Amino acid sequence: MLFFHPMDFLILIAFGISIWAQFRVKGTFNKWAEVPTSSGLTGYEAARRMLDANGLHAVPIEPVPGRLTDHYDPISRVVRLSEPVYYENSISAVSVACHEVGHAIQHSVSYPMLTIRHRMFPLVNFTSGIAPFLLIAGFLFGAMNLVGIGIIFFSAAVAFQLVTLPVEFNASSRARDLMISEGFITNDEERGVAKVLNAAALTYVAAALISLLELLKYIMIFTSNRE
C-alpha cells in the first residue's frame, strides 16, 4: 500500500517540524527586526560593504518586493534583498543581507558544495518534475519498474537538498565572522544574529528531513513488493 505506511507517521512529524520552523523563522525575524544595530547600517549598506571588502565591487544589490524573498542569483550574479531587509537597519535586516552576500562570496571562491549544487540544478529541475508522476503511476498500476525509476529521480532531488545544507550553514558562518570583523555588529548583538540565521537554517533542515523520510518510505515499499 502506498498510503498509511508506518513511515508516514515519521513524515507527519517532520512535516510538523517544518511548519513550526516556518513560524519560527518569521517570528524570530519579526522580533529582531525591532532591534536596530548599533552601527546604524541598513541591510543594503552592510551588504555593499561586505561585498566590497571581498573584492566583489561589480556585484549589484537590488531590492525586491515581499518579505523573506531575499536570495543570491548566481546566473545574474546579483544579491536581491526584500524591501524590509534592504532599507531597514535592524539585526534581522543586516543578518539576512550578509547571509545572502555569503553566497556571493561562495560563488566567487568556487566553494565546492555550491559548485556541486549549481551543477546538479539542471538535472534536479528535470527529475523532480517527473518523479511524482512515475511513482504514482507505478504504484497505481503495480509497475515496480516505474517505481524504481521514480525513486532514482526522486533521489536526485533529495541529494540536492542535502547538498544545500552545508551551503546554507557555510554562508551563515561567513556572514557572522565578517559582520563582527567589519564592525557591523557588536559582540553583544551576535546573539540576535545567531538566532535569526539559525531559525532560517532550520527550515532547510526540516525540508531535507521530510524528503529523506519520503525517499526511505518509497524504497521500503519498493523492496517489499519486489520480495
UniProtKB/TrEMBL annotation:
<feature type="transmembrane region" description="Helical">
    <location>
        <begin position="201"/>
        <end position="221"/>
    </location>
</feature>
<protein>
    <submittedName>
        <fullName>Peptidase</fullName>
    </submittedName>
</protein>
<keyword id="KW-1133">Transmembrane helix</keyword>
<feature type="transmembrane region" description="Helical">
    <location>
        <begin position="123"/>
        <end position="141"/>
    </location>
</feature>
<feature type="transmembrane region" description="Helical">
    <location>
        <begin position="6"/>
        <end position="23"/>
    </location>
</feature>
<keyword id="KW-0812">Transmembrane</keyword>
<dbReference type="InterPro" id="IPR007395">
    <property type="entry name" value="Zn_peptidase_2"/>
</dbReference>
<feature type="transmembrane region" description="Helical">
    <location>
        <begin position="147"/>
        <end position="169"/>
    </location>
</feature>
<keyword id="KW-0472">Membrane</keyword>
<dbReference type="Pfam" id="PF04298">
    <property type="entry name" value="Zn_peptidase_2"/>
</dbReference>
